[in-house]
Design a protein that fits this description.
The complex is a heterodimer.
Chain A lengths: L1 E9 L13 E6 L11 E5 L8 E5 L4 H5 L10 E5 L2 E4 L3
Parallel strand pairs in A: 3-5
Antiparallel strand pairs in A: 1-2, 1-4, 2-3, 4-5
Chain B lengths: L1 E10 L2 E2 L7 E7 L11 E5 L9 E6 L16 E6 L5
Antiparallel strand pairs in B: 1-3, 1-5, 3-4, 5-6
The chains are: A mainly beta, B mainly beta.
Chain lengths: 91, 87
């Protein structure tokens, strides 16, 4: 799982049925101190995140199928937590 | 599985229900001699094994969900062991 900042929202009318009714965000992975790092990911929102939030994203293969209890779910990255605070000390 | 050092804690009141009561740590993947190997990641600690500064073993991908008693959580990194010594 990785920390990321929600930067954009993706809306699409043509999509796989597993994406129906789901909010799709563009998230920018960030290091614990907030600096952006790496390329952007697309993530399905699961906890009501908004643009600008720092969130925890991730998900293992096949997890979305059971989270959304669908028979087929081509979804890999989920937003699973909205971060209130990060205590961090580099080594 | 890999070695990592706990370098931070993530506090999140709003999260998926499977992560309720489960701490999330920031891990810095390290080699045996303590050098950084990959960028930091967030790992769940369902068994309350770790605390700040500890060297731990963590597992990734689908097996990470097996660290939870329910055998299911939408996570892909879990702490599974506390390293006392590497000899």
């Amino acid at each position: 799982m990785f920390l990321a900042r929600v930067v954009n929202k993706v809306t699409s009318s043509e999509k796989h049925c597993a994406y129906n009714g789901k909010i799709v965000y563009v998230v920018q992975p960030v290091l614990p101190d907030g600096t952006a790092e790496g390329s952007e990911w697309i993530a399905i929102d699961y906890v009501g995140a908004g643009i600008g939030d720092i969130v925890v994203c991730g998900g293992a293969p096949g997890v979305a199928k059971s989270v959304f209890n669908l028979d087929m779910a081509p979804i890999r990255t989920l937003i699973m937590a909205i971060v209130d605070k990060v205590d961090y000390r580099d080594i | 599985m890999k070695l990592g050092v706990v370098t931070g804690v993530v506090w999140a009141s709003k999260k998926v229900k499977e992560l309720d009561g489960c701490r999330m740590y920031i891990l810095q993947p390290v080699s045996v001699d303590g050098n950084k190997t990959d960028p930091p990641l967030v790992a769940a600690d369902p068994k309350n094994i770790a605390s700040g500064g500890d060297t731990v073993v963590y597992v990734t991908s689908t097996d990470a969900a097996q660290a939870f008693d329910s055998g299911f959580a939408p996570v892909n990194a879990s702490i599974v062991a506390l390293v006392d010594e590497i000899s």
